[in-house]
Amino acid sequence: MKTQEFTALIYNNTDALHRHAMRFTADSDDANDLIQDTLIKALRFSHQFEKGSDLRAWLFVIMKNTFINDYRKKTKRASIITTEDTISSNHLMQSATRNTGEHQFLMRDIQLALSKLPDAYRVPFIRYFEGFKYEEIATELNIPLGTVKTHIHQARQLLKKQLKNYKDDAFRSK
Q1: What is the pLDDT of residues 89-118, one digit of tens each?
Q2: DSSP track, the chain
Q3: Spacing of C-alpha 51 from chain mean position
Q4: What local confidence, expressed as pLDDT, does residue 174 receive?
Q5: CA nearest 58: which of 22, 23, 6, 3?
């Protein structure tokens, strides 16, 4: 079928398409946009239309799928993008005032402080930090339970001393 013939057949169905689009959108401008998108897709995929089949039904399926896909895109976009109504000073403060670079310095300093700990303190402390229980650490390292607790306590004290600057900065910024 030639493009002109196909366009003429589509044109004969524009009133039905408009009524159908209004059922989806309930808004004349949105319905016109939906019709336009439907017609563009129909012309683009005219080679897939089987001559002798119901053109109106084919156009309605294109319209329905176009509406559903647009609806999904809009809802996905709306869930990602924050609208002006929901922006508050709390949102702005979290996103605009935090410098993520400072976290990199903090992590590097923590790693450095951990590396300065004696192995006897560092290993139990890291295991405890990873979620192991005192008893599990004692069994793994083959040392008494009280020693594990003491070594973890000593590691905390040494880390507090080495990372004292961060604690002082935290109190000043509040």
Answers
A1: 555 555 555 566 667 777 888 888 888 999
A2: --HHHHHHHHHTTHHHHHHHHHHHHSSHHHHHHHHHHHHHHHHHTGGGSPTTS-HHHHHHHHHHHHHHHHHHHHHHHHHHSPPGGG--HHHHHHHHS--THHHHHHHHHHHHHHHHS-HHHHHHHHHHHTT--HHHHHHHHT--HHHHHHHHHHHHHHHHHHTHHHHHHHHHH-
A3: 45
A4: 46
A5: 6
Q: How many CB atoms lie within 10 A of CB 25?
A: 16
**Per-residue tokens: 145:** 């339970």
What's at 135, amino acid-wise? Answer: E
Quick one: average pLDDT of 65-75?
89
Per the CB < 8 A criterion, the answer to whether 1 and 51 are in contact is yes
Please give the torsion angle defined by the CA atoms of residues 13, 16, 22 and 25, in that order, rounded to the nearest 10 degrees.
-50
